[in-house]
Amino acid sequence: MAKPLLEVAILGGSGYTGSELLRLLLSHPHVKVTAVTSERSSGTPVADLFLHLRNTDLRFEPLDLRALAKKADLFFLCLPHKTSQETAAFLFNAGKKIIDLSADYRIKDPKVYREWYNTPHLFHSLLKKAVYGLPEVYREQIRKASIIANPGCYPMSAILGLAPIIRKNFVDPNTIIIDSKSGTSGAGRSPSQPFMFCEVNESVKAYAVTSHRHTPEIEQELRSISRKKVNIVFTPHLMPMDRGILSTIYIRTSKKIDLQKVQNLYQDFYRDKPFVRVLGNGIYPATKAVKGSNFCDISVFLNKRSSQGQTLIIVSAIDNLLKGASGTAVQNMNIMYGFDETAGLLNAPHFP
Amino acid sequence: MAKPLLEVAILGGSGYTGSELLRLLLSHPHVKVTAVTSERSSGTPVADLFLHLRNTDLRFEPLDLRALAKKADLFFLCLPHKTSQETAAFLFNAGKKIIDLSADYRIKDPKVYREWYNTPHLFHSLLKKAVYGLPEVYREQIRKASIIANPGCYPMSAILGLAPIIRKNFVDPNTIIIDSKSGTSGAGRSPSQPFMFCEVNESVKAYAVTSHRHTPEIEQELRSISRKKVNIVFTPHLMPMDRGILSTIYIRTSKKIDLQKVQNLYQDFYRDKPFVRVLGNGIYPATKAVKGSNFCDISVFLNKRSSQGQTLIIVSAIDNLLKGASGTAVQNMNIMYGFDETAGLLNAPHFP
Amino acid sequence: MAKPLLEVAILGGSGYTGSELLRLLLSHPHVKVTAVTSERSSGTPVADLFLHLRNTDLRFEPLDLRALAKKADLFFLCLPHKTSQETAAFLFNAGKKIIDLSADYRIKDPKVYREWYNTPHLFHSLLKKAVYGLPEVYREQIRKASIIANPGCYPMSAILGLAPIIRKNFVDPNTIIIDSKSGTSGAGRSPSQPFMFCEVNESVKAYAVTSHRHTPEIEQELRSISRKKVNIVFTPHLMPMDRGILSTIYIRTSKKIDLQKVQNLYQDFYRDKPFVRVLGNGIYPATKAVKGSNFCDISVFLNKRSSQGQTLIIVSAIDNLLKGASGTAVQNMNIMYGFDETAGLLNAPHFP
Amino acid sequence: MAKPLLEVAILGGSGYTGSELLRLLLSHPHVKVTAVTSERSSGTPVADLFLHLRNTDLRFEPLDLRALAKKADLFFLCLPHKTSQETAAFLFNAGKKIIDLSADYRIKDPKVYREWYNTPHLFHSLLKKAVYGLPEVYREQIRKASIIANPGCYPMSAILGLAPIIRKNFVDPNTIIIDSKSGTSGAGRSPSQPFMFCEVNESVKAYAVTSHRHTPEIEQELRSISRKKVNIVFTPHLMPMDRGILSTIYIRTSKKIDLQKVQNLYQDFYRDKPFVRVLGNGIYPATKAVKGSNFCDISVFLNKRSSQGQTLIIVSAIDNLLKGASGTAVQNMNIMYGFDETAGLLNAPHFP
Questions:
Q1: CA distance A103 to chain D (A)
Q2: Which of A151, B120, C31, D317 could form a disulfide bond with D285, CB atoms 3.0-4.6 angstroms apart?
Q3: How many angstroms separate the CA atoms of D286 and D294, rounded?
Q4: Any chain A CB within 8 A of the CB of C198?
Q5: What share of chain A is helix, strand, coil (3-state, %, to 5)?
Q6: C12-29: burial string, b at 16+ Cβ within 10 Å, e else
């Protein structure tokens, strides 16, 4: 432990993603959090806004980039999109490393970004340098990256569910349907009527059908992994719970296949990936089993009833704030800086 | 109101479905409940087992069919499958009418029944007489029926979502995927670890993937309505809420279609069906909006991104204990006896 | 039914209390709702804001008192305090009857009102005419009233729990502790961070300890009923559920008493009060058993362990939006207009 | 880290308390879990019963005391009462140390034990040796103990709330009322209708009023700390949430007191107690802020309205499975073995 601690800062720390990141980094063995910002809560002790975080004397400070640039080597950006674009560029030019939890550096094609986010991308060369922070697929590129585009929560659950088979010829990449169920923390902490307790409790509904911004992100990565044209149907749902995404993924096979072989493919693909657990035959992933952890649980099923080919059903479960956001951000940091990939991420979650 | 009240009995009244039926029938304008049975709670006042039902002096009695047959003209059966088979046959032979909420008379083909329910069907001629109690499709047959097979909860949400288009040539009936999310009351009131509060709360999971018993029921009815071969993929999920089923249904189109025309088809199909509400463009069904009511809310969406044709996405929401069980049972009774189809079923549900 | 329907209007109908009132009144046999207002949603169909209320063509309209005064005979006010004060005065002068669900006409002493609500009361003579709308105590006065101050939700649960014994000499009115647990709907529908799903879910906390505005209301009524000086300790708590208030009430006895006699007192007091159920020995009130109903369930217990006298423990359960607000408002209307006291209020609530 | 790890075993590991203990011990820096028992699940891998616990190869084994005694030095007993009595005696005679999470060694007076637990205590001399495992009060005795009676969950929340003032003359120990609200995990994992999801969800109720077994435990400890006669009124409530106990405690003062001075007393009492946080003026404890942690949050309020003296209101919040059971058990172990008192217990809980 003679090595000096890595100094990190969190920009935008008053939301659920920021506070989860802070929770992880405060107990990380190789890191020291030197700053955390919040425009609205500037000056307030972190422990006042988040009663569960008492082991810190940090106070929120304003987003003064010049001052902040002197305080840390690595910056986690939990800022709104567009703001993140500019902030990342400033910090990169100041020689800093960046893990951006917004969507700003995820979409490689600026035209697609503009179409879905209603704002132009102004930093094309930096966009090209950004590595999509999916450690289970891009570990080597992450190791050398200066700027990481941390994946969205739905894309994480969908891509991990499909990565092991999307390259294979026995599946038809144009039949993918992703039906995702998410807890409410994904919507953030800002007051809004649809996310009030009495509106969410005891209800489930679909939203943003055919129009959710994570659609092009999922398609881009599935195309990149498979080197095929991929079009998906993606339907997110809002659930009456705090955390968790369960994605039920459907894909048609182009010929008869054997379930056991597919399960073996998954086991092989994730053998040396410490945070993906391929569950045994007939065991169902549940969001509660991964709540509070960085794990992704996956099971694969085969429906043979269809008369036109068969359908693979893949179910994946993650905690949207951990594997779906802040946990993967820490995992990416671990890889970038040569720490153990699981450092600070292996505490078993509580149950119930 | 000079007409005498119809005398009805509920066999198997100590579960959630039975108590919901009792709640509806106790305030129904044309009905008198003369008996309600429960083996385990025989002798107990209903109000002791169900504190929310105080306006009744009924006591649970044992399932003594000879005695019961004298007490009512119409019998609602909320019994386990197999028991229901025999009980229905006895009552039918005694000249009674039956609404069976079990699965015993739903599956027309005894071989299919035996395959999925692990027991033979012993009353083939009565099975032929049974009418599938889906009022939005079989209203005329229900009017004349002596025995009604009341639909399952998942089939109700799935069939109502597909009935208006399944006959049409522009959809491919072999691409149907039904992804359903259900509250916990569907699992009944008997103690069981997976349905304990701490197991269900804050979690979502899939179960019975490719093997749920409602699969052949859905396929049978979709075939019957469409007069085509239909194979489905059906995935049920358990949700942390008491009531409600949201079904997200996917079906590929065989040619380019216009969403507005499809929505018009739904509007036309359900125009004179008092309990189905086709929601306007961009409004999302939510289980909370139908909780405690007999309504089914439906919205239709079109995904044009797929390169191979398009995908229709239909979302339907019901209360599993009402439109998915006891509410439809009362609606069927109303039709059988010439009451107003909505009698006793129009109280707006509370919110939140 | 030859009698013409009573025309009523709801002022402030876009919150939870207003929509609950609307739900009840739309299915009330003797009433026609002619107007419902909302400043923010003026022009919007009610069914668009509240998907569960489809059997109405009403649209929200602005609060134009001159126009509204021509539309109805009875006005329900679900307005913020202070606004309610003035609105009630205007309508009273126009010869209308008023049921005010705000706090403006509950506190008899204008000084106490000013102290707790931070605004003066400007209509002292109307304040004197207002009857506190607690039907179980003031039924005769309500019958003749022109303006009703509908009780607060916590006061309703507390006063019904204490009314049968507070006059008796065997209890000490200065030892009352009221520990109340409330669902979240009591906080209203306006967006606010502390009432977001992720803040309320999986948590319980006390709030407004020693300072809640319902304190003087409870004390005023307990004094009025007992004709003694009464000081209470009142602690409200926020619960992770939509509806329901459970109040656990403690009061010391000044001599040894017999629990059975106390239970008889409660039975006698509430014998002809259709909405209060005194539960049998050892049965515990639960908010779920009254959810969606206008009932108040009460049980009484006796703790004999204390060395200094004994302690009575009274537990009461109500639905805060029904018996705690809109249900009692309808009950008051029924009494004022000579309808059956239970008209429109006897539908059994659903369970679970 | 050259020191050998302490070998520990958990007897009765298939419930919520046992699995929580396992979770904590598996990541504890100074401990190795060598055995965990379960009669019902003997032979099953722990990871199959508890999907959230994957970083262990442990299997449940039967309760064979002779074999187990060779496997560990310290035994955690999560067994039913009576079984625990005998098991502890066997292990003590075998020279082992014991932390008993059942109630068997908590009640010092065997007559009181027999009265409340309906079974005699057969090991009086061992009972005398047992130390009540409340580290904030008995740290020195715990350090030297061979057998610890780990406190009950409700007593923990109540005693921590009262310990700083119960010795003081300005409070009246015969006016204590403890109104506690608990999550459902306290009821254990065995299937039981009252704890099914649909029964608990959306409801709150009191239970075991005047008769809960934690009553004599709380009184015994308050007497021991205060050296006065103490009689309490204790009312537990069941809440629709997994974890957490909030206790709202009322005690009358015998003279006028100053709130700030009382708060200072609390600050002083808990200054060197790492797991108790006395919150600042006007900050309310919430169970969510301590969920998943070993902290107890406490706030103190003063009601001056009473005409007969004043009432102190103390609110305490704990996680019933951590500070209320397994967390304190680990804390006791840390003290017994000279580890840092917070070892393995300082991970910040997640939020939301």
A1: 22
A2: D317
A3: 14
A4: yes
A5: 35, 20, 45
A6: bbbbbbbbbbbbbbbebe
Whole-model pTM?
A: 0.97
Binned at pLDDT 50, 70 and 90, residue B306 comes out as low
**Contact predicate D137/D225, CB 8 Å:** yes
Quick check: is C78 catalytic? no
Q: Which tokens belong to B46?
A: 């209903």
In DSSP terms, A99 is beta-bridged to A76, A148
Within chain C, which residues score under 50 in pLDDT? 1
Tell whether omega for the bond before D352 is within 30 degrees of 0, i.e. cis. Answer: yes
Inter-CA distances, D153 with A145, A215, B329, D183, D284, Å: 49, 47, 47, 11, 20
Candidates D116, D172, D177: best to mutate against C (most CBs of C within 10 A) is D177
pLDDT reported for residue C124: 98
b/e A301-334 (16+ beta carbons within 10 angstroms → b):
bbbeebeebbbbbbbbbbbbbbbbbbbbbbbbbb
Look at residues B84, B336, B80, B105 and name the one whose alpha carbon lies nearest to residue B217.
B105
Distance from CA of D329 to the nearest CA of B (A): 22
Residues of A in contact with C242 (CB under 8 A): 197-198, 201-202
Token couple for D72: 């560990």
**ipTM over the 0.85 cut-off:** yes
Give the residue from chain C lying closest to D245, CA to CA. C204
Q: Is residue B342 scored above 70 in pLDDT? A: yes
Give the C-alpha separation, B72 to C300, whole Å. 40
CB pair distance less than 8 Å for C52 and B289: yes
The token pair at C199 is: 């803040």
Fold category of D6-129 in CATH: Rossmann fold (3.40.50)
Residue range D154-319 forms a domain whose CATH class is alpha beta
Task: Taking residues B117-142, report their average pLDDT.
Answer: 98
Reading across the β-sheet that carries A97-100, which strands appear in turn? A60-61, A31-37, A6-11, A74-77, A97-100, A147-149, A131-132
Q: Per residue in A62-115, pLDDT tens?
A: 999 999 999 999 999 999 999 999 999 999 999 999 999 999 999 999 999 999
> Which range has the worst mean pLDDT, A59-68, A105-114, B48-57, B148-157?
B48-57
Report the topology of domain B154-320.
Dihydrodipicolinate Reductase; domain 2 (3.30.360)
Give the pair of three-digit tokens for residue C187: 């906080």
Return the percentage of chain A with pLDDT > 90, whole number.
92
Tracing tokens 């496997």 back to the chain, one arrives at D71
Sign of CA dihedral B37, B38, B44, B48: negative
Please list the ranges in chain D whose pLDDT falls under 70: 1-2, 306-308
Chain D, window 223-252: residues with a beta carbon less than 8 angstroms from a chain A beta carbon: 242-243
Inter-chain contact D277–A54, Cβ cutoff 8 Å? yes
Interface test with C, best of B46, B51, B200 (most C CBs within 10 A): B51
DSSP letter for C45, please: B
Amino acid at B308: Q
Q: What pLDDT, on the 0 to 100 scale, is given for residue C352?
A: 86
Q: Domain residue spans in chain B?
A: 6-129, 154-320
Main-chain phi, psi angles of C171, to 5 degrees: -115, 155
Dihedrals phi, psi of A245, to nearest 5 degrees? -125, 125
**Residue B193, min C-alpha distance to chain D (Å):** 5
**Residue from A195, A196, A238, A291 whose CB has the most chain C CBs within 10 Å, to mutate:** A196
Residue A103, amino acid: A
What residues form DSSP beta bridges with B59? B45
SS3 A314: strand
How distant, in Å, are the alpha carbons of A248, B52, B295, D9 from that of B288?
23, 20, 11, 47
Is C198 within 8 Å of A240 when comparing Cβ atoms? no
